[in-house]
Each structure stands twice: as C-alpha cells, then as structure tokens.
Amino acid sequence: MTAQKVIIIGTGPAGYTAAIYTSRANLNPVVIEGNQPGGQLTTTTEVENFPGFPDGIMGPELMDNMRKQAERFGATFVSGSVTSVDLNQRPFRVVMDDSKEYLTESIIISTGASAKMLGTPGEKEMVGRGVSTCATCDGFFFRGKSILVIGGGDSAMEEATFLTKFASEVTIVHRRNELRASKVMQERARQNPKIKWILNVTPVRVVSDASKVNGLVVKDNQSGEERTVSTDGIFVAIGHTPNTGFLGNQVEIDDRGYIVTKDQSTATSVEGVFACGDVVDSHYRQAITAAGSGCKAAMDVEKFLEGSMFHDWLLQTTT
Ligand code: NAP
Question: Which one is catalytic: 134, 278, 281, 295?
Fold first, then answer.
C-alpha cells in the first residue's frame, strides 16, 4: 500500500482550510469527511460573521464553497469515518469504518467537538428553528425575543450575558441550585438586569409548532411538579465533547478531552500528527478561528514533510 503524504480527518472549517492549503502545496491530501461532512456549520442557517460575505452566507453553502476550493487544487475526499489509528508505526495507519485502511506520513486531526444536547423530546427536531447551541452564531436572530439558556457552567453564563444584547429577556435554566460557573462569570450574569433564573429544574421536553419553539416543559426537582416556561428560543449550553475517541489515548489530551498542542503550533505529542479547530479549542470555537488554525496545521505539516525521511525519498524517486 502506498503511503499518503497527509491525511486530514474531519471536514469543518479547520479541515477544509487545511485541505485547501495542503492541496495548493501539492501534498495531495486525502480528506476523510466524517459522520457530518462540513461539520457543525452545516446545521446552522445564515452565517453573518465570516469575513468576506457582507450579506452573510448560509452555513452549508460556506462549507460547500470551502470543499470546492480544496477540490480545485486536487484534494481527494473520502466519505466515512475513521474508527482507529495506529501512531506507533511509521507511516501511520488509519482505519475507516468500512475497514478500508490508509498509510500516511502525517495526519491533521480536525474532528471538531460536538455540542452536548439535552436529549429531551422535541429538541433535535427544532435545531435551527429555535433551538441552538451557539449564541454567537444565532443570537442575532432573537432580537427583542425571550430566550432560555440551559446550563450552569461558564458557557451558560457567557452565552446568557451575550444574548442580552439582542433578547428582551434571558432566563438561565439550571438543574441544581448551585452553579458550576466561576464566581466572576456568575456575578456578571447575576448583575445583568435582563437575566432571570429558574434553578433546580430538569428540562423535560421542548414545546413547538411546525416552525418555531414556544416553550420548555421543566420539572421542579424538589416538588416533582411540571410546568411550561414560555420562550421563543432555547440555547443549550451544557458543554462540548471533543471528538477524539478514535485516537485511543495515543495523543496527549487534557483533562477535558481536548488535544494538547505545543506552544503556538498545531503539533501534538506525536511527531507528524497535527491538530486544529475545535478539537483543540474549548474557548473561541468560531468558524474563522478554526479556519485559521487549519491553515497553521497545513503549514506545520508542510514543514514537517520537508524535513522528513519520506520527503527525501519522494524527492529521490521523482527526480
Ligand atoms: P461545564 O463547565 O461542564 O458546565 C456544564 C453545565 O451544564 C453544568 O452546569 C452542568 O450541570 C450542566 N449540564 C450538563 N449536562 C446537563 C444535562 N444533561 N442537563 C442539564 N444540565 C446539564 O461546561 P461549559 O460551561 O461549557 O464549560 C466548559 C469549560 O470551558 C469550563 O472549564 C469553563 O470554565 C470553560 N469556559 C470558560 C469560559 C470563559 O472563561 N470565558 C467560557 C466558556 C467556557 P451541573 O453543574 O449540575 O453538572
């Protein structure tokens, strides 16, 4: 089996940008699309804050454009997901869900992070129609409306505070009386006159008609009573899970499951394996920051291959 120069795993903005840069550098990347080709942005509607689109662009169209741009320079896309990798051998081995295998001199991991969902009835169906996991992406659409934010961590405090710029009222709904969020974030939220609180309740189901969310049924954890809280939108902010399961602990990850990269680079604990986008970033989580880090990963790979034995061999056989 011939080894690839680089395999990119995951196709959000980070993976596609890495594909554009590596294909343009004649590295002929093989890009594994994953379960959700195009990533999280394919589930959103209009993206208004990606530079270069003064009138906004639909999330799926933006991702499709990035894909076409990478194809134009020769990137090869493979549908399916990676189930495991072997990083103890060189070239590395990448195993797909259809049992197909690839060998590669380098890997860019851009598998992203999945927002955790409540799993309550009615929630999944209304994503993009009143249920969201990204205030920065969707807050603007709730100008003058009332919103619920679910969660008691820093994300919930941050999202709620941010959403008060648009919403008439934001209510934080949390399953305990105590918040997990840091003191400073809690205080900021508590001092915001637009933020209300419903504590010690469990979300039970989303109430909606065909086109929009109307409310959330919650159960009081003390009395067990259920009631419906009216709302125009529900922002679920209960954390993210980085998609690293297929790595099987071969790459260093931090205590929250994010891949650790070295200094300012995208290099991981394994030489020749690079990571970018939301799988390394618990903080910014924006399409544009992911795209930027995808560019960095491609440049890091290029440098790595320039210095690698594989590249020397390639030069000898092609000259
Ligand atoms: P988190 O700290 O894990 O908090 C998740 C919250 O969601 C918790 O309050 C949790 O409740 C609740 N929750 C989890 N599963 C739930 C479920 N099924 N139903 C209802 N509620 C549920 O996650 P995060 O807020 O996303 O923060 C992640 C990390 O990023 C943290 O380290 C945080 O400090 C950091 N962060 C920092 C900033 C900042 O500094 N600007 C902003 C955002 C995030 P319990 O408390 O009951 O477990």
Answer: 134
